[in-house]
Specification:
Helix content: 40-55%
Strand content: 15-25%
Order of helices and strands: HHHHEEEEHEEHEEH
Structural class: alpha+beta
CATH class of the largest domain: Alpha Beta
Number of helices: 7
Largest sheet: 5 strands, antiparallel
Shape: elongated
CATH architecture of the largest domain: 2-Layer Sandwich
Amino acid sequence: MPRLVRIFNFIMQLKVDRSSADDKIGKDVLLLMKNVLRVVIIVTGFLWFLTIWNVSLAPLFASAGIAGIAIALAAKDTLANFFGGISVFMDKAYKIGDYIILESGERGEVVEIGIRSTRIKTRDDVMITIPNSIIANSKIINESAPIPRFRIRVPVGVAYGSDLEEVEKTLMDVALANPNVVKDPEPRVRMRAFADSSVNFELLCWVEQPASRGIEIHNLLKSTYQAFADNQIVVPFPQRDVHLIGEESG
């Protein structure tokens, strides 16, 4: 029996060592399987020896059943997180390095997927730990799937009376001049609405990674502002006309 346990430990350790360093959940599952199966082998061997010695197993099974119920009730949250982790592993809804948005609204990069919990790091460098029992039953938006490429939207308003063809061309030139904007699919410009003080456009383009969303929106807005100034395209601001009606005397 000790030799069998050592052989099993050796085989499982080889599996763990061959796991990719990035495949954190794979290592966790292998280590869990190693520990669980080792316990199963030891318990099975112990029961087998008791059977050989003609020891009655009925009292032992009765005691184990009562103990198992007590343990299950005391560790129900732990078991829920464990099975939630297995569900996350089987579904493969996200992986290390993906950017996800939680149902509660938090957005961040997945940095660790464990058996009991998942950790994401927000853009404010805040670490959020979510129990797997919760995340397995929540709506998760994966911005990195099915492909890492991510579309960004840049809303822009121009004054009434502007040359709309010139506005569209200027926005396209701004997007194509940005080296971090993906050229395939190519950027798009769409007119969205006649607003109270402006004609609203939206520049749609793609970047390689969701992590680049914030900085590239910043860069595109700066470039758009300068390009509009160079081409005499007016960015309006809300205005109100107030008419005063005097009261007639007498």
